């Protein structure tokens, strides 16, 4: 009898005696039969399922633990042949379940080598070697009543594990199937994908023969390993030629010719495998777009055009072309172009992916130049305090042939440097293409503050109302100095 069972038995007997002397008939606790490591339930054959009343389970002194030292039960399994085994605790009456799979490399707790630990409904898949004993320690995070269930099943190799047994992708698409590479292997002469490494393994194979040429995408999802997909042409493992490769769960998109058979190899880094979903479909169309700036271009602007396309097939863009509508072109991802005249220009943008898909889009770019210029600010040469004089600002409209509404802000110089706003005036300004100019006339009364400085300079700033001036560098000008007498 183990120390743990003896202590439990002695304690129960003591309380039973006390309760008996008090006139009560006690009910002794009954730990599960496999409560101790030394009394582990032997798993005979697979599949295996067992349920035990966990209410009075205990935890042995020195017992290894995954995440807690709460009560546990034990199972042992020694397979007669190599097998891939999956264990879980589905069916337990509590959700805070936890279990660990150990390989016995010696006797007792010291001889246990932990392979993996799972909890809260997780599972563990492990390679069981013939003649080797494995122990499963199962329990829950918190003590308490409940029924504990343990399940073990052998995972067979997938039917399409070998190249000679490829699973055919039928039409019509999409094609979607569940797979499990936990027990898959890799053949001695299988090709190594260009995006893989020497740890690549556990593969399955699919075959597809399109009736029409086009681009197709393969995808692995709902996986718990690091997947790799590769596509090939050829008739045998020795003659395969890779046409595409994608790792880490990305889409594998490639061009396929009608009547040619393509083989898709699905495996994992580090020789890992798990259940997953495999999807194969016609590649979704390209979404082509671009943006440009500034959004209100003029002949003064070197406009930047940038691609904004999206490839649902994730193949990547191989080339870009631009036709700017005035005869100029570019092949840059982001291109610059400056127009020499106002007008409406149809810009055509075309993209091509690495698998050969091409698509285009167009936008009409309206080039409109808005530009006004202050040519002169006239102020009197001298003035007296309290006297009102005329300040004239002359403006020329060099851009839009239609009238522009322009506001001119007038400032005066102040002591210590800088300028102070005085007033504003807004007027329509017609085009100046025939030499016409517009004069803004301001009435200004000179002050004692002007007299204290002795001299005053006026500053005029022009702004087109609601529109960006295409060349703002000539929108500001100073007058000559006015001397106060």
Count structural domains.
4
Outline type: elongated
Structural class: mainly beta
Largest sheet: 5 strands, mixed
| Beta-strand residue percentage | over 45%
Number of helices: 2
Could you say what the CATH architecture of the largest domain is? Sandwich
Structural account:
It is a single chain. With 485 residues, the chain is mainly beta. The chain folds into four domains: 31-154, Jelly Rolls; 163-282, Mitogen Ypm (Jelly Rolls, Sandwich), CATH 2.60.120.510; 290-367, Immunoglobulins (Immunoglobulin-like, Sandwich); 372-484, Immunoglobulin-like, CATH 2.60.40.10. Helices cover 5% and strands 46% of the residues. It has two helices and 35 strands. The chain has helices at residues 3-21, 448-453; strands at 41-43, 48-53, 72-77, 83-88, 97-104, 112-119, 123-128, 134-140, 147-154, 167-168, 175-180, 201-208, 214-221, 227-233, 241-247, 252-256, 262-268, 275-282, 290-293, 303-307, 317-323, 329-330, 334-337, 343-353, 358-367, 372-378, 382-383, 388-397, 404-413, 419-429, 438-445, 455-456, 458-464, 476-478, 482-484. The strands form nine sheets. Strands 1-3-8-5-6 form a five-stranded mixed sheet, with no helix packed on it. Strands 10-12-17-14-15 form a five-stranded mixed sheet, with no helix packed on it. Strand 29 (404-413) and strand 30 form a beta hairpin. It starts with a helix and ends with a strand. The model is unreliable at 1-22 (pLDDT under 50).
Keywords:
Jelly Rolls, disordered N terminus, 4 domains, Immunoglobulin-like, 5-stranded mixed β-sheet, 485 residues, mainly beta
């Amino acid at each position: 009898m183990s120390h743990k069972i003896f202590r439990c038995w002695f304690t129960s007997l003591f309380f039973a005696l006390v309760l008996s002397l008090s006139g009560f008939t006690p009910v002794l606790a009954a730990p599960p039969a496999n409560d101790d490591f030394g009394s582990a339930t032997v798993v005979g054959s697979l599949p295996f399922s067992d349920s035990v009343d966990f209410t009075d389970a205990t935890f042995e002194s020195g017992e290894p633990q995954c995440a807690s030292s709460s009560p546990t039960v034990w199972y042992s399994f020694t397979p007669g042949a190599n097998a891939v085994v999956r264990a879980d605790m589905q069916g337990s009456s509590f959700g805070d379940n936890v279990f660990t799979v150990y390989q016995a490399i010696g006797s007792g707790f010291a001889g246990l080598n932990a392979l993996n630990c799972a909890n809260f409904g997780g599972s563990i898949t492990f390679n069981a070697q013939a003649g080797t004993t494995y122990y499963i320690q199962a329990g829950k995070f918190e003590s308490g009543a409940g029924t504990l269930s343990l399940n073990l099943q052998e995972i067979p190799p997938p039917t399409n594990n070998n190249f000679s047994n490829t699973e055919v992708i039928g039409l019509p698409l999409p094609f979607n199937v569940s797979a499990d590479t936990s027990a898959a292997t890799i053949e001695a002469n299988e090709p190594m994908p260009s995006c893989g490494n020497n740890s690549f393994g556990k593969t399955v194979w699919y075959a597809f023969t399109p009736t029409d040429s086009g681009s197709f995408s393969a995808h692995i999802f709902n996986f718990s390993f690091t997947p790799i997909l590769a596509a090939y042409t050829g008739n045998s493992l020795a003659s395969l030629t890779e046409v595409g490769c994608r790792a880490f769960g990305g889409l594998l998109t490639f061009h396929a010719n009608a009547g040619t058979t393509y083989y898709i190899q699905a495996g994992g880094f580090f020789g890992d495998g798990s259940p997953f979903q495999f999807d194969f479909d016609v590649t979704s169309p390209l979404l082509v777009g671009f943006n440009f700036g500034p959004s209100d271009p003029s002949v003064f602007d070197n406009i930047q055009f940038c691609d904004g396309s999206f490839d649902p097939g994730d193949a990547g863009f191989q080339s870009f072309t631009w036709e700017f509508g005035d005869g100029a072109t570019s092949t840059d991802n982001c291109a610059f172009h400056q127009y020499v005249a106002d007008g409406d220009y149809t810009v055509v943008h075309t993209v091509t992916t690495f698998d050969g898909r091409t698509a285009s889009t167009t936008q009409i770019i309206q080039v409109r130049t808005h530009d006004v210029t202050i040519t002169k600010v006239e102020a009197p040469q001298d003035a007296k305090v309290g006297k009102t004089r005329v300040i004239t600002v002359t403006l020329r409209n060099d851009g839009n042939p239609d009238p522009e509404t322009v506001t001119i802000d007038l400032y005066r110089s102040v002591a210590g440097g800088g300028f102070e706003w005085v007033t504003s005036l807004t007027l329509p300004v017609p085009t100046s293409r025939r030499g016409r100019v517009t004069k803004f006339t301001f009435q200004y009364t000179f002050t004692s503050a002007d007299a204290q400085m002795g001299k005053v300079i006026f500053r005029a700033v022009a702004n087109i109302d609601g529109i960006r001036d295409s060349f703002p560098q000539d929108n500001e000008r100073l007058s000559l100095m006015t001397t106060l007498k």
